[in-house]
Every structure is written in structure tokens, then in C-alpha cells.
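WARN no homologs supplied; continuing
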Amino acid sequence: MINCNGNLISSITEASESILQSLLTGFSVKETLRYQKNNLLFWELHYFRMMAALRRHRFNIPVEYTLIYLENELIKTIKSKDSIEADFLLNITFIKHQENIDFIISATKVLPFSVNPLDYYSVDLYKEELISSGFFSNLTYTNNSLRIISTSYSIENGLDDCILLNDQKNLAESIKGTLYLFHGNTIYTPNLESGCQDLSLRSAFNEWILEGKTIYVLKEQAINPFELQKSDELMVLSLNQGVQNITKYRKTNYTKGKTASLFEKFKKSLG
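OK structure emitted
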């Protein structure tokens, strides 16, 4: 089932004419969330991220779009599925058409958070286009076209992923998630000024490390690509799959001993 403005429908073709028109001609802001163990993970972080994105794009936010209202609509979509005990990825799309806003929520069943679903994971830098390190690059929508193009590039070159650079030639993120570099007990990750997405999972994971729950020290900063070859381990964190170690970058091979135990501890903290 699909949730259109609070109405459950079995197919998008059943949506109202105004929504279908908005899909063709309107501008949209999207957010992906994860539902597991009867819980919307990081819901408050997602909510405030969505509202900030809508304000940045000059959407006239309806007063009824409260934290509780949108949470109830997401849960309603989940409950329309056969198994609410499963894990789901929820996509909520806000569409602007003239001065009106519509929302569409869909849910897809996924596997639980995992560690290293792929034993071999090869990456390279994508340098044909650069991410702006400006204000709007932290929003997912801004560089969607670049991610689609770089994904095609990675497939054409036999890669599992690519690392995107910003206009300062520093690391921004992986196509598939947030990038982390392990140097001993220090973890480096690109800061928001580098143009990476301000993802809710990234915020929650970074905050958890900064609380001192592990032996690691986290540093969010601008990172030169040469640091990749100096790292002990490289990790990609994503809402879709969890944690994936990078095993090869160009001629450099990496171990993957630290990230698995670290992410398992983080998962336990989620309840």
C-alpha cells in the first residue's frame, strides 16, 4: 500500500489527479527512514532534517505536519503491510506544486542491519564532477544526479562504489553512504562543510562515538584523498545495509577487524 496525503491506496494510479500532476511537474524533497523492532529509527532527527529541507526549498509547510502527525502516517503505512515485525525502508516524498504540498509514503521490506554483506568491496575516486561544499550540498536531493551518474561510472569500471570529491578536492562521501577512515584509535569522517549529506544515521552514529562509549576518538574535518592510503580501515555507513568495509582502493588493500565490533555495539545501543 501507498500513503498519499493520509489515504492508503494500492497503486499510485489511484492517486488524485492533482498528485499525479504534481509528480510530473512539481519539485520534490525526499527522505528515507528505517523501521525495525517496531520502531522508527532516529525519527526526531529525520523529522527536523525534513523540515529544514522543506524550509530551505521555500516550501510552505502545513501546520498539521507535526512530529506526531507524520509519525502516525508512517506507522499507518507500515501497518498496511503483511508483516509489521519485519524491517522496512520508508520513503517519504514531499511534492511542491504551485503553493500546495502533497506527500507520498511507500515502504519496502529489507534485511536487518548487517555488517559486511560483501566480502570484497572495491572503490575509486569519482573525479569527473565535483560536489559543491556549499550550504545546499548537505541535502540529499541536491546531488542526486551526480550520484546516479557516478553509480553508472562505478558499474562500467567494475567497482562496487565510488568516493565523491568536493570542489576543494577533498573527500565528501561514498555514493552509498557516509565515509569513515580508521587511523589507529582515531576515526576521521568528512565534516558537513565538505558537502556530505547530513544524514540522520550519520548524526546518530557520530554522536554515539562522541559520547565516549568506545575507545575511538572521532574527528569531523576536511580530508585529503591521500589519507585513504594511510588508513588502517575504511568504512561506509548507510541506512540501507548498515556497515560495509572497503577492502580495496586502487592498489591498497584493507583489513576489516575494527568496524564490525564497533557497529555491533552501536546496534545494541538502538535497543
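The radius of gyration is 19 Å.
OK
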